[in-house]
Specification:
Largest sheet: 7 strands, mixed
Strand content: 25-35%
Number of helices: 11
Radius of gyration: 20 Å
Order of helices and strands: HEEEHEHHEEHEHHHEHHEEHE
Oligomer: single chain
Low-confidence stretches: none
Helix content: 25-40%
Length: about 300
């Protein structure tokens, strides 16, 4: 830390903005509950072109920290992951130059799209860039791990395979990433969010949410080696619990499947859902079906997988 604290801040960089990408879970298996009360997971996570915009401004005296986000005005600072990211950065590096964060939200909250975790990681990436990137990706991954189980997956834009609580991350090789690049997706979300904490608590009531570790790993390995396609690997172990609580999901899923041959899935713990687009569906027909079922206030987004 003493070595880090002697580093000079690049005085030319007064402010920096960068996108904070959302994610979808192409595959998410819940393998069981751990002794530490977390759950073991195995998941394929892809970042998508829906993003918040994070702006970091160097301002004020040392130790100054402020976070502005209209959509998170009711969130206490101690629960804001972007604020926690700066605090963790300062503790790890000894650098405490004044910082103001501005978050322009585009990613829906409580959607299972990883918006909060992505924001936190974008903050530490931005702080590193302000110093002309002296810290390695491994350093950033370690720091991200301390912020939350799913944070390390956002250090790189590539699709990754995560395991453990979500803290063990392996990014796909360039060839496999390129095969996913620009794959078209349709997002849709009811006009309400799901609490991740409540979804996890509900798992104890549904044994059918849990998957075999061996079978799950075999399926992911088969997909990664090219033995099966993305549509064949789509899976979310949360869905039995979510569907029993939110009965309006299944009718729309069935409608999209029957009309257009789509395979809708919930992303993470929800409430946002997604489909991999196909040649049988148009965006206009898809959006019309969603809004007919869930109303005009339903969130819809036509996007692509980054890589």
């Amino acid at each position: 830390k003493d070595c880090f604290s002697r580093m000079k801040i690049n005085q030319r960089i007064k402010a920096l903005s960068l996108p904070s990408w959302a994610k979808i879970n192409l595959f998410l298996a819940i393998l069981g509950k751990r002794d530490d009360d977390y759950h073991d997971l195995l998941s394929i996570i892809s970042k998508i072109d829906l993003s918040d915009l994070i702006t970091i401004e160097r301002t004020g005296p040392d130790g100054f920290l402020e976070c502005e986000c209209a959509h998170l005005s009711d969130l206490p600072a101690e629960r804001n992951l972007a604020v926690k990211a700066v605090i963790a950065w300062r503790e790890k590096t000894g650098l405490d130059f004044g910082v103001r964060i501005h978050i322009l939200k585009r990613i829906p909250v409580q959607a299972g799209l990883g918006g909060g975790s992505s924001n936190a990681v974008s903050v530490i990436i931005a702080l590193n860039r302000m110093l002309s990137e002296p810290f390695s990706k491994d350093f950033l991954i370690d720091l991200a791990t301390s912020l939350g189980s799913d944070c390390p997956s956002f250090v790189d834009e590539r699709t990754c395979i995560v395991s453990g609580r979500g803290e063990r991350v392996r990014f796909l090789n360039q060839e496999k990433s390129q095969s996913l690049k620009n794959r078209e997706i349709f997002l849709f979300m009811p006009p309400l969010g799901f609490s991740t904490e409540e979804i996890y608590k509900g798992l104890s009531d549904y044994e059918d949410c849990f998957s075999s570790k061996t079978e799950s790993q075999d399926l992911v390995d088969k997909w990664e080696s090219g033995g099966i396609s993305e549509t064949e690997v789509l899976f979310n172990g949360f869905e039995p619990s979510i569907f029993k609580k939110h009965l309006y999901l299944s009718p729309l899923f069935e409608d999209l499947s029957q009309k257009y041959g789509l395979m809708p899935k919930v992303s993470g713990s929800g409430s946002c859902c997604f489909c991999l687009a196909n040649s049988h569906s148009t965006w206009e027909n898809f959006k019309s079906s969603v809004q007919s079922a869930w109303g005009e206030n339903a969130f819809t987004y036509r996007g692509r997988i980054l890589c």
